Amino acid sequence: MKNKEPLILAVVVFFTLVTYYLVEPFAHHQMHKHVESEGFAYADLPAITKTGSAASGQELIMNAGCAGCHSIEVAGMPAPMDAVMAAQSYGVNPPDLSNVGAIFDAKFLADLIKNPAHALNVEHKFDEAKGQMHPMVAFYGMGGDIDQEIADMVAYLQSIAVKPEEVTSTMAFENACGRCHAVGYENWTQIGEKPKFKHEKDALAFDIKVLEYQDSLKAYMGKLPPDLSMYIRSRGEHFINTLIENPQNHLAGTAMPRVGVTAHSAEKVIEYLEDAGDSKRHERAAIGKNVMIYIVIFAIFALLWKKQVWRDLH
Amino acid sequence: MENNSRRGFMGKAFGAVAGVGAVASLYAMKKSWDPLPSVKAAGFTTLDMTIYQENVMVTEKWRGKPIFVLKQSAKMLEKAKENPRDIERLVEIAGAHYMVCVGLCTHLGCIPAFRPASNDFKCACHGGEFDASGMVQMVPPPRGFDIPPFKIDGSKLVLGEAGPEWQAMKDNGITL
Amino acid sequence: MAHFTKATSIKDWFNQRLAVEKLEKVMMSEYWIPKNINFLWAMGMVLVITFVLLVVSGIFLLMYYVPTTDGAFYSVNYTIMREVDFGWLWRHVHGVAASVVFLIIYIHMFTGIYYGSYKKGRELIWISGMLLFVAFSAEAFSGYMLPWGQMSYWAGMVITNLFSGGSLHADGLVEWIRGDYVPAQAFLGRFFMLHVLLIPLAIMGLIGLHFGALRIPHVNNQDGEEIDFEHEAKKYLDGDKAGSKVMRFANDFMSKDMMVVGVFLIFFFYLVFYNYGFAMDPVNFDPADGLKTPAHIYPEWYFLWSYEILRPFNIDLGLVLFAFAQVIFVLLPFLDRSPNTCAANRRGPLFAVWFWLMLSNMIVLTAMGKLPPEGIFSTIGLVSAVLFVVMWLALPIITSMEKKV
Questions:
Q1: Which of A49, A244, B134, C175 has the fewest CB atoms lying closer than 10 Å?
Q2: Smallest CA–CA separation between B53 and chain C, in Å?
Q3: Judging by beta carbons within 10 Å of its beta carbon (0-12, 13-18, 19+), is residue C378 exposed, middle or buried?
Q4: pLDDT at C19
Q5: For residues C67, C71, C72 and C77, what is the CA-based torsion angle, rounded to 10 degrees?
Q6: Which residues form the domain of C360?
Q7: Residue B84 confidence class, pLDDT cut points 50, 70, 90
């Protein structure tokens, strides 16, 4: 009896791999179009040509009225109103500016100050010609060279922020995404992390504030931005990266703005989402390695046992 | 013969390797039964001791169990000082004395009722009684109310954490 | 009362009450297996191991799963995946095993078809095996409902809608199955019951029947040779182990079984830790939303061939052919009219071609079932579905033309 087992194994493996290929990589490729990342280069935005002065920038920001909507905690400037009221006025709570210089791309910040709807890629929704104004007022200059002034403002924002390498996953997420997206599994609501309350009445009062905020947000965006707790597993890293880079690539016509984060911040946002939706990945990798080593040893011992038992059967 | 003993050996060796896997699986299974992190984290309750009034017995909650907090009045303190064991059961915070204990009868676990008129506790199940500092004043309970591990933090009391005062109570046999 | 004597040993004590030695001989050391087999014969043991993995991992999931529409998704994706020590491991093992078990079932099934292991005396092994396939399918479907994700909800909606019978409009029946107008708490609760209790009991009973049906006819061999098991067993027991055509189940065959299981487990655990996306579809990580259908819904891969037979036709014809596809495999022992029990490649060109074409066609149906029903894909799907039906109708004809080997 010729030993046909290698051939049989090859046939089984062949048919299995063909089936796997057609059902998984091939089919998913057919169902979802592939979007290439541009590495957060923001090629459509103009480069900053002037060298900014942080001192001038500080004066400009104080005089331009940014603190009318934005808090700047590190500069001792609190928010003019609470998150719920802010959302009622503007649709969403304007971010604190302390660390935006580190989290967001400089070109983006410059364009945002000059033309918010353009930088955020929501001109299809906020069309100046039709009188649909973005809630953030554009900066029209304080009399001098507007590009120099904006470069100064960006320089100031960068000077008060932490170093870009020091941006943590929580900082990046809460600032760039957290004012629209809740993450229930990390206890994150759009108005901040939900505290522990001793009395149920206080907990419910907090929940009502969140719901009120969400109502304003829903009216502003068209629908409530989804909770992102499991998005790292339902959408995957590549989709989220390319979505953050430019939401219009995946969801044409969406109200979700391009948030303008740096590549490093985007990495940190992914890390935050992984901690929320795939928190055991390190343990899985570590245990996986040990299990694979063990199971190979198991198979070897089984083989040796079989060889011994079958010695006198052939 | 030689084959038999070798075959026996290889079979036993394989069995041993499989056994290692089985033991590892049992370990993982045991860990899956452990109380969840959220359960263990909820095992701490902080009490703000400034809100309690003398003679008013308040029931709080800790690890799902009732906790009796009774701020001692001058009369209660006097009675407690007569009995050294009684005074040792009380917790002193910011000049005031409190009885803080698990509100379950040490006999068989019912919740005794506080009687404001006589400033003591009566357990309806089998008639046991405890005084205002938690000591037994009528059997069948075998010992005074148990005192939960606590830590004094300024004017707050953190239940669930073992501070030095509680450790001293445990070492002296005041509580289990 | 039967006669009992004073026990001479612990073994003797058990023998007098439970006949353990006799049992061990019948089930293990004197259960004779032909030597002329290959590793495909180990798929039965691989299935047992996989079933054990499913039951054990299922036990630990069951400890923490909350069977309510409000709590289910959180209990799986937060409590089990994030909080319970090794909870993520049980979930990954359970999901991957539920998918891989069907790969092994299909290999096991097609091995049986190839070698004619359903013929002449082995019909009940085949039938009980196909009933096991149905039971495992029901178990997989009911289990898939439990995480209550988008795929759970919409698969539940679509599959229960099948029972409306197309033009029969049996909406009342559909509502009765669901316990509600749409998949909701009643639906989840009853599929939880089915998945955790009723179907596992049925599976265990059917496994018993499957083994029982196998014991008397004995396992088949690569040449379909009719072996005189008593004669060959005597040769073996008299010392001619090499010359005998049979071997003991335990430990001869079992040691080879374990070797195959070892290789299988390497493949299995690799998937559990590193490549599990095929078994845990991303769409099911969105919580169920009755007001939003996902852009692409599809069943798990092992149902795709069946799904593709339903899709290309109008609802009534589709349902008839779908029912045909479920039942026709069971009838194989009676549709195959040939006198030969041997490997397909020795049964003449017709059956050999039939076999490889059926296998390939089912893979094509599987692939088309996953792809969007557009353009070239829907054409291929239609042709494959029709080919499937035609091939089964042709089987009695081509097999009755076979000459005895």
A1: A49
A2: 40
A3: middle
A4: 92
A5: -150
A6: 298-405
A7: confident
Report yes or no on C11 lying in a domain: no
Number of domains into which chain C is organized: 2
Structural domain includes residue C2? no
CA angle C385/C390/C394 to nearest 5° reads: 150
Residue C36 in any domain: the answer is yes
| pLDDT tens per residue, range B102-133 | 999 999 999 999 998 988 999 999 999 999 98
Q: Are residues C77 and C152 in the same domain?
A: yes
* Residue A303 to residue C265, Cβ atoms within 8 A: no
Looking at the structure, tell me whether residues C391 and C266 fall in a common domain.
Answer: no
What's the burial of C66, exposed, middle or buried (CB within 10 Å: 0-12/13-18/19+)? middle
Inter-helix orientation angle C87-115/A281-310, to 10°: 40
Among B7, B11, B31, beta carbon nearest to C85? B31
- Which residues of chain A lie closer than 8 angstroms to C296, CB-CB? 31
Q: What would the mean pLDDT of A193-202 be, rounded to a whole number?
A: 90
> Cβ contact (<8 Å) for A301 and B20?
no
Boundary of a domain, candidates C293, C322, C355: C293
Asked if residue C330 and residue C254 are part of one domain, the reply reads no
When scoring B29, B30, B32, B40 by the number of chain C Cβ atoms within 10 A, the one with the most, hence best to mutate, is B32
Chain C residue numbers touching B14 (CB-CB < 8 A) = 258
Average pLDDT over residues A229-250: 95
Give the containing element (helix H, strand E) for C11: helix C10-18
Residue C137 lies in a domain: yes
Peptide bond before C284: cis, by omega within 30 degrees of 0? no
Site from B12, B17, B46 to mutate, A interface, most A CB atoms within 10 angstroms = B17
Domain ranges of chain B: 2-34, 40-171
- Please report the pLDDT score of residue A276 as a whole number: 96
How many residue pairs from chains A and B have C-beta atoms closer than 8 A?
33
Q: Are the Cβ atoms of B32 and C84 closer than 8 angstroms?
A: yes
Chain C positions in Cβ-Cβ contact with residue A310 (cut-off 8 Å): 252, 255-256
Do C346 and C230 share a structural domain? no
Categorize the per-residue pLDDT at C166 as very low, low, confident or very high, splitting at 50, 70 and 90: confident
Q: Is it true that the peptide bond before B140 is cis, omega within 30 degrees of 0?
A: yes
Tell me the residues of chain A between 6 and 25 that have a Cβ less than 8 Å away from chain C: 8-9, 12, 15-16, 18-20, 22-24
Give me the interface pTM, i.e. the ipTM: 0.93
CATH number at residue C34: 1.20.810.10
- A289: pLDDT confidence band, cut at 50, 70 and 90? very high
Verify whether the Cβ–Cβ distance C370 to A22 is below 8 Å. Answer: yes
Give the model confidence (pLDDT) of C236-293 as tens digits.
999 888 889 999 998 899 999 999 999 999 999 999 999 999 999 999 999 999 999 9
pTM over 0.80? The answer is yes
For residues C218-231, b (16+ Cβ closer than 10 Å) or e, as one string?
bbbbbbbeebeeee
Yes or no: domain B40-171 corresponds to CATH 2.102.10.10: yes
A86: which residues sit within 8 A by CB, 6+ positions away? A69, A79, A92, A93, A94
From C267, C293, C319, the end of a domain falls on C293
Residue contact B32–C87, C-beta within 8 A: yes
